[in-house]
Amino acid sequence: MENDIKEVLLTPEQITAIAKDIGTQISKDYKGKNLVLLCLLKGSICFMAELMKYITIPCVIDFMAVSSYGSGTESSGRVNIVKDMSTPAENMDILIVEDIIDSGNTLSFMLQYFKAKNCASVEIATLLNKPSRRKKEVPVKYSGQEIDDLFVVGFGLDYAEYYRNLPYIGVLKESVYSDTEE
Ligand code: PRP
Ligand code: MN
Ligand code: MG
Hints:
The chain is built from four helices and nine strands. Helices cover 23% and strands 34% of the residues. A six-stranded mixed β-sheet has the order 4-3-2-5-6-7, sandwiched between helices. Strands 1-9-8 form a three-stranded antiparallel β-sheet. The chain has a single domain, classed as Rossmann fold, CATH 3.40.50.2020. A hairpin with a 5-residue loop joins strand 3 (60-69) and strand 4. The protein is α/β, with parallel strands linked by helices. Helix 1 (12-29) packs across helix 2 (45-52). 1-O-pyrophosphono-5-O-phosphono-alpha-D-ribofuranose binds at residues 40, 42-43, 67-69, 75, 98-106, 158.
């Protein structure tokens, strides 16, 4: 598994530093609000777990599973809800926690989805951001690290469902996926 990684982009320590920064800011911005940390499964599982440790105000957590990538490295553009929230979103300040924003398809779908729910607010926190790949603009309130157009895995991010358990963000070697791409 480690052999498939070309380069480490963010070490566990760097990820923790980002989570601390964003967590501290969220704790200030959401004081007195009805904060819901909404983890978008599966990719955000690690960032969610790290970020929430540094949020020092009352909040609830919830999970949604949405998926747009098949087994390839390109978004299909179609977003499916695999699992919905288990707590009501009405009147809540929803903060969507994402691992990465690429085309923006997933989050523009999510923002659309919440439009009909009468939330007090809906914002986005992401660990990684690839603005060069954006197809749909989404407003990002908290962004950890901007990255170039590289296929990254680890710390929750997958290629064909694998590599999520790496404790860092790494660039996948092209040879791992080049024979399966058209
Ligand atoms: C990945 C990633 C983001 C999304 C970003 O999820 O975790 O949620 O793609 O890409 P986009 O901006 O082009 O929509 P994926 O659909 O692979 O599901 P997963 O989280 O279960 O891996
Ligand atoms: Mn995802
Ligand atoms: Mg994925």
